[in-house]
TrEMBL record:
GO terms for molecular function: DNA binding. Transmembrane segments: none annotated. GO terms for biological process: phosphorelay signal transduction system; regulation of DNA-templated transcription. SUPFAM superfamilies: C-terminal effector domain of the bipartite response regulators, CheY-like. It comes from Pedosphaera parvula (strain Ellin514). This is Two component transcriptional regulator, LuxR family. The modification 4-aspartylphosphate is found at residue 57. Residues 148-213 form the HTH luxR-type domain. Keywords: DNA-binding, Phosphoprotein. Signal peptide: none annotated. The keyword Transferase does not apply. PROSITE patterns: HTH_LUXR_1, HTH_LUXR_2, RESPONSE_REGULATORY.
Length: 219
């Protein structure tokens, strides 16, 4: 019998990891070799368990899934990465693929689709929804897409991460500690975000970040 493909789960929600582990361990061709709630643990387990694929969420304890994907590709280039997230694929899928992921799937998708996506990337193919595929094709052909019309889409990966943490209610100091960067660096990111979103001051920035964060949770 062929050797089972090893899967590392990286998600800060224990119930999601439990659901994924049960789903994957029921398959005859794959097994879960480790679970992590944050990027440092994930990187440690990658070295220990040597998985074939890592399933990564965008939001993690004390860090970003996008940054983790970049680190995985730099340190463990042979590991395939697929994103499974609740976050808007129209905003995050292209970022994830640019970072090195081979697929993006929403958590709301049916179990069958999740398994289909995992097997697809394990076969060396890319996996995104039809909606994302159309967006990326349009961007390639005409140079722009509906998603890039949003001011939020103009933020860099790090700026979007800071914006998201502001929306979760973290202070500038807490964001600096969370991302392991300096207080002044966070302030610089906030200044660039305000400029790109055409916001007048810190109060408007905070209000817009909270509004956006809440809208992401309810979509």
């Amino acid at each position: 019998m062929a050797q089972k493909r090893k899967v590392l789960l990286v998600d800060d929600h224990p119930l999601v990891r439990e659901w994924l582990a049960n789903l994957i361990n029921q398959q005859i061709d794959m097994l879960v070799c480790g679970e992590a709630a944050n990027a440092p643990t994930a990187l440690e387990l990658l070295g220990q368990t040597k998985p074939d694929i890592a399933i990564v969420d965008i939001s993690l304890e004390g860090g970003s899934g996008i940054e983790l994907i970049k680190n995985i590709k730099a340190l463990y280039s042979g590991v395939i990465v697929i994103v499974l997230s609740m976050h808007d694929e129209m905003l995050y899928a292209e970022r994830a693929l640019r970072a090195g992921a081979r697929g993006y799937i929403m958590k709301r998708e049916a179990t069958k689709k999740v398994l289909q996506a995992i097997r697809c990337v394990l076969e060396g193919k890319l996996y995104v929804s039809e909606k994302v595929n159309e967006m990326m094709t349009e961007k390639f052909v005409v140079g722009r897409s509906p998603a890039t019309d949003s001011p939020i889409a103009q933020l860099s990966d790090r700026e979007l991460e800071v914006f998201q943490l502001l929306g979760r209610g973290l202070s500038t100091r807490q964001i600096a500690d969370d991302l392991h960067i300096s207080f002044k660096t966070v302030q610089a990111f906030c200044a660039r975000i305000k400029e790109k979103l055409k916001l007048a001051n810190a109060t408007e920035l905070l209000r817009e970040a909270i509004r956006w964060h809440d809208s992401q949770r309810t979509e």
